[in-house]
Specification:
The protein is mainly beta. The chain has one domain: Methylamine Dehydrogenase, Chain H. The protein is built from one helix and 14 strands. The radius of gyration is 16 Å and the shape is globular.
């Protein structure tokens, strides 16, 4: 097992995921919008623990999963979808996490957003996320389907479940 030492990391409620070539993504679950800008809440480190880049993944992060290619799947809970900490107010942008599930590239730019008009319904709060290979599966509130995203296409199954179990 390889260990990466990171010095001076200050992201609150951090989630960490491995990246190709031994790097590490550290993401803070919370991110404020204030004074016309977002706080950085994502950092990518190389295998030696050196900071390579910082960026913004948005507020209200429920989970983060990385893929073998270095893509980053991020799911959001309700505050990330509907807004908090300055996001979604009259003088600020809509929350980054408003789709409920986003795939970012390794440069922290958005590659794909869950479609609001999905036949499985919109995401209000993503309860579960798992990435296998380059694909992701999610389970979410409101209608509690299980969806699988691969090649930017959404497939899924309705369930008779109603909430977390």
């Amino acid at each position: 097992m390889m260990m990466v030492s990171i010095v001076g990391q200050s992201l609150a409620h951090s989630l960490a995921q491995p990246l190709p070539d031994g790097g590490v993504l550290v993401a803070g679950a919370r991110c404020r919008w204030r004074n016309g800008a977002a706080e950085c809440n994502a950092a990518i480190y190389d295998a030696a623990g050196e900071l390579l880049r910082e960026g913004v993944l948005g507020d209200g992060i429920a989970d983060v999963q990385t893929t073998p290619s270095g893509d980053i799947w991020v799911s959001y809970f309700d505050e990330g979808v509907y807004g908090n900490f300055g996001w979604g107010e009259a003088d600020s942008p809509a929350p980054i996490g408003s789709p409920g599930l986003i795939r970012f590239r390794s440069d922290l730019d958005i590659a794909w957003r869950y479609p609001y008009d999905s036949k499985f319904g919109a995401i209000s709060d993503c309860y579960a996320l798992n990435a296998v290979g380059e694909e992701a599966c999610a389970y979410y509130y409101t209608d509690f389907p299980i969806v699988r995203i691969g090649a930017d296409a959404v497939a899924g199954w309705s369930t008779e479940l109603h909430g977390a179990r």
